[in-house]
Amino acid sequence: MNELKVSRKLHQVELTVTPKVSLFARIILLLITIPSLSLIPLLIYQVATDESFQSVKMFAAFLTLLLMCGFFGRLVLWNFFGEEKIIVKPRELEYQYSYGLFKSKPVTKVFNTVKPTYTKYQEMKKNSYSGKFFFEFDNGNFESALKLPLEEVELRAEQLNQFLNPD
């Protein structure tokens, strides 16, 4: 299951969720990505040296392979080095995804009222549940990307509710 780190500063709470992926899944991702990456120089060489119409087909194959490598490369980075960061302040929520080598653009949601809660999921194992953070705003909502143990999500959602709505 994924790992949650919580840090509280003066007027904000920072939640950092890190994916915990099995070694088997990581190996499969690498077995798909590395051969794809190794074919790119070969295709570049073929396109550069071929003077016939075959180069158009090779260029199309190169673009397809490049897109595949980008997709699987991003998955590899996420599963090896990724984290989801959620910063909750009294009137705004900011989230960002980090892939180790690069980060997504931070997204900020400004609100007047917010209700931190969670979404419950049943896992493949019987009687095993997990959850994701879910924030309902007066002008939209946000659900975290990664699942966590249900008990931890319930506890943290209640703590966030007390932090944001101290009444």
Task: Give keywords.
alpha+beta, 167 residues, 5-stranded antiparallel β-sheet, 4-stranded antiparallel β-sheet
Instruction: Tell me the major beta sheet.
Output: 5 strands, antiparallel
Name the overall outline.
Answer: elongated
**Elements, N to C (H/E):** EEHHEEEEEEEH
Mean pLDDT: 85
- Rg over CA atoms, rounded to whole Å, is 21 Å
Q: Beta-strand percentage?
A: 25-35%
Low-confidence stretches: none
The percent of residues in helical segments reads: 40-55%
Give, in spatial order, the strands making up the sheet with the most strands. Answer: 1-2-3-4-5
Separation of termini?
A: 34 Å
Quickly count the helices. Answer: 3
* Number of E strands: 9
